[in-house]
Amino acid sequence: MLPEIKSFIGCESSFEEAAAVIFGAPYDCTASYRPGARFAPSAIRNESYGIETYSHYQDKDLSDISVFDSGDIELPFGDPVPVIEAIRERTAEILAADKLPVMLGGEHLVTLGAFKAVCEHFADKYGSDVYVIQFDAHCDLRRDYLGQQLSHASVMRLCHDIAGDGHIYQFGIRSGERSEFEFAKKHTKMYPAAVSGVSFEKLPEAIEELRGKNVYLTIDTDVLDPAFFPGTGTPEAGGADFGQLLSAIIMIGKELNIVGADINELSPPCDQSGASTALVCKLTRELLLALL
Q1: I need a surface site. Which of 36, 90, 167, 186 has the fewest CB within 10 A?
Q2: Residue 13 — left, alpha, or beta (φ > 0 → left; ψ -120 to 50 → alpha)?
Q3: Residue 150 belongs to what domain range?
Q4: pLDDT tens-place string over residues 79-99
Q5: Would the pTM count as exceeding 0.85?
Q6: What is the per-residue pLDDT for 92?
């Protein structure tokens, strides 16, 4: 007999043979509205057995690819500084083995640790910089939130501090302070939602600009409309539906060189039906198949 070790469905490859490595970052201590995202990585693994390993959307199966689930990082409660460092270290270890890191959050601040590691790796090894595609309801471009700079409301501003102007492409945005939108006009490539709702019609244009570059993909699940996805800490009306987001992810996976990715801001306690967790399970499967 062997002990039960829960991993995401179809991701039982060894670390040595895997092309990608999943890890969880169960942290939500800067959540500004409804906490609970710390429970997402374990919930995603547990509920993943309610879906199939095969995707008819892409005609691919998780058994066709090699993914190792390295489990959750043990993160301290509270202080975000050691949390970001622990995530950076895990991501750096995965990159050093020439594997693709895929992180399950956690609140959106966890992206900072992974993005730091990716930028350091590609600068040191290849002398090249990294771009970001962000799917999100919120700008996340505040300099601080209630005096705290290390916040999920500031994560993309912190990533901009690392990457520089013109390196962050933002889709689905429909909430933020005026100053954030003004900052975006000067420093990022933002494609905000219209009154009619979220559209990713400009994504092919962005893909052409990013072709041949190293790209980090961060998916804040509140980019989805709360009518389809209520299980998130900061729901925002007027979002995308599952089909829109899935089509965008598949397109990105086919066309761009993705060097790291994450899915964040699922809060299982905010949707007791489990439907939001089931959606993220399917989205995780599709992301893995699109990237490998």
Answers
A1: 186
A2: beta
A3: 20-291
A4: 999 999 999 999 999 999 999
A5: yes
A6: 98
